[in-house]
Design a protein that fits this description.
Elements (H helix, E strand, L loop, with lengths): L1 H43 L11 H23 L3 H16 L2 H5 L20
Helix pairs in contact: 1-2, 1-3
Length: 124
């Protein structure tokens, strides 16, 4: 009985650690995606991101930060299991891999990996 109890305790502990690692991976994927979106936003308006010319740079930073906060909230509420977190990571990674030109096209479809996330549904 002690062995069964120990096994269950270890299983619960390893599940929590795996979930925490998955959450960390998701947060990292979202951060990378947001940096990509910020870089593309600066590129689209012709501002060197390192120059940070106010007030335009501040407006871009604020807009991207707000969008990223909404996306992170969407992922967090939708991705409650490790399987869902993996899907959210795949979505964020697929956005990060796109070129700025691909991301700036108004009628471009959302990446297939993002299917099911509110933030990536196109308004009709």
């Amino acid at each position: 009985m002690k062995n069964l109890s120990l096994a269950v305790s270890l299983l619960i502990a390893s599940s929590s650690i795996a979930s925490a690692g998955m959450t960390s991976d998701l947060n990292s994927a979202i951060a990378n995606m947001c940096e990509k979106l910020k870089t593309c936003a600066f590129q689209q308006v012709g501002i060197n991101a390192s120059s940070k010319r106010p007030p335009t740079a501040t407006a871009i930073n604020n807009s991207v930060n707000q969008a990223c906060a909404l996306i992170k909230a969407d992922f967090t509420s939708a991705a409650t299991t490790n399987t869902q977190k993996r899907k959210a990571i795949a979505c964020a990674s697929s956005v990060t891999k796109k070129t700025c030109s691909e991301l700036s096209q108004p009628n471009a479809p959302s990446p297939l990996a993002c299917k099911g996330f509110r933030s990536f549904k196109r308004a009709r």
